[in-house]
């Protein structure tokens, strides 16, 4: 077995664990709010998501760079010289980690899911059951068109990646160092608080599709993929964050990063991201 294979396996394991960790925290806090009666408001839920991401970055940054998001991996490949041979393995690990993080949440909360469905006469796989499917993945508000949902995801993913590039670039102002993961987590929480009522702030194809696929396999069926729309909604959180992420990374790299007086690292920015 080659050292290159062993190295890539270790990196992917870190991506798997980090992604699974923050998905577990995020879907668990939603489960607590929706089926266990916990009194969490929007901001509290967004903070848990953000801190979950921060902890996942702290866990994995030293090994894999803590991408934890296919949009980040693709953006770093395009604009920060990330090894293209690792792009597909990283994304596969992130998707698998997100799936398993959702599965772990369901494992510990499944009795409460069943009790809630029985109490509300909810049939899993029906339109009404999207209320619980949304614990695992994101869906737009009923009043939001699919085009607007896609635009929202492009905008917030662009903001996310642009600011991640800034927060992990020590040449841009005061070095952030160990604070960078916490700042990235707070960034996610702020974006979530501002836009969660619109689309659920996916910003991450793995965060959305992995848990969505878990819901699809566990009784929610096609409604988990379509969100009750005429076309498969799952395509929007898969594609829009990649478009927005690469746009945000490009704006930072060519609009700000290249004009900074401080010398850059060989890759333009540090690759500790989320």
Q: How is this structure best described in words?
A:
There is one protein chain. By secondary structure, this protein is mainly α. The chain has a single domain, classed as Glycerol uptake facilitator protein (Up-down Bundle). Helices cover 68% and strands 0% of the residues. It contains ten helices and no strands. It has helices at 3-34, 42-64, 70-79, 87-119, 130-133, 146-167, 180-199, 205-220, 222-226, 235-255. α3 runs antiparallel to α4 and α4 (87-119) crosses α8. The longest helix has 33 residues, at 87-119. The protein is globular. It is a multi-pass membrane protein. GO terms for molecular function: glycerol channel activity. It is found in: Membrane. This is Putative propanediol diffusion facilitator. Belongs to the MIP/aquaporin (TC 1.A.8) family.
Radius of gyration: 18 Å
Q: Look at the structure and give the CATH class.
A: Mainly Alpha
Instruction: Write the CATH architecture name.
Output: Up-down Bundle
- Mean pLDDT across the residues is 93
| Share of β-strand residues | under 5%
CATH homology-level superfamily: Glycerol uptake facilitator protein
Number of domains: 1
Instruction: Specify the number of helices.
Output: 10
Q: Low-confidence parts lasting 5 or more residues at pLDDT below 50?
A: 263-272
What structural category do the secondary elements indicate?
mainly alpha
Shape: globular
In which range does the helix fraction lie?
55-70%
The SSE order reads HHHHHHHHHH
Total strands: the figure is 0
Question: What is the third-level CATH name, the topology?
Answer: Glycerol uptake facilitator protein
The end-to-end span amounts to: 30 Å
Please give the oligomerization state of what you see.
Answer: single chain
Largest sheet entry: none
GO cellular component, one term: plasma membrane
Family: Belongs to the MIP/aquaporin (TC 1.A.8) family.
Protein name: Putative propanediol diffusion facilitator
Keywords: Membrane, Transmembrane, Transmembrane helix, Transport
